[in-house]
């Protein structure tokens, strides 16, 4: 708005002296109630476009901060619960897989120990190779399982190789 001389009429924010201890953006330090509309000052224009919020109600701010903390902790809890469910599912799945390998190994060993000998030597060799391979597979899967158990420190602290066992992508670099 302008007065009859074409000079801008200052609103209350621009024309009132500053409150003690509060800096009003867009004003000069010596004469805070005076601004020169003819000066091309980008900083001043930018500062004027920023809304000025002054509140003396610390109770309101405390409640706002409490809400932000509660929301943040709730999100953390949700993400940790999701991580827990993932870890639980993958660990039990790995345990079940290892136990199935043990059952297969036991079945192969029982065939080998059968009092009725295997009819030909090639079947015996295949069975023996299967048992040897299965034993190696069980060892690898047990090692993987022991590595996976280290997730107890949390996914964020877990090395990339542990995260990989849970199907999680490696951290972005």
TrEMBL record:
<feature type="domain" description="DUF7615">
    <location>
        <begin position="59"/>
        <end position="164"/>
    </location>
</feature>
<feature type="region of interest" description="Disordered">
    <location>
        <begin position="1"/>
        <end position="24"/>
    </location>
</feature>
<dbReference type="InterPro" id="IPR056034">
    <property type="entry name" value="DUF7615"/>
</dbReference>
<dbReference type="Pfam" id="PF24590">
    <property type="entry name" value="DUF7615"/>
</dbReference>
<protein>
    <recommendedName>
        <fullName>DUF7615 domain-containing protein</fullName>
    </recommendedName>
</protein>
């Amino acid at each position: 708005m302008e007065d009859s001389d074409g000079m801008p009429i200052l609103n209350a924010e621009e024309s009132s002296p500053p409150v003690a201890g509060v800096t009003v953006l867009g004003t000069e330090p010596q004469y805070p109630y005076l601004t020169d509309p003819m000066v091309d000052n980008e900083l001043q224009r930018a500062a004027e476009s920023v809304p000025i919020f002054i509140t003396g109600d610390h109770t309101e701010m405390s409640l706002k901060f409490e809400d932000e903390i509660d929301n943040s902790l709730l999100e953390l809890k949700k993400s940790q619960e999701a991580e827990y469910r993932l870890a639980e599912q993958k660990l039990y799945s790995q345990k079940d897989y290892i136990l199935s390998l043990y059952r297969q190994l036991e079945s192969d060993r029982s065939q080998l120990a059968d009092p009725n000998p295997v009819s030909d030597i090639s079947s015996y060799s295949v069975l023996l190779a299967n048992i040897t391979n299965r034993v190696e597979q069980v060892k690898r899967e047990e090692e993987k399982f022991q590595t996976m158990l280290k997730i107890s420190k949390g996914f964020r602290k877990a090395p990339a190789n542990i995260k990989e066992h849970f199907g999680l992508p490696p951290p972005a670099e």
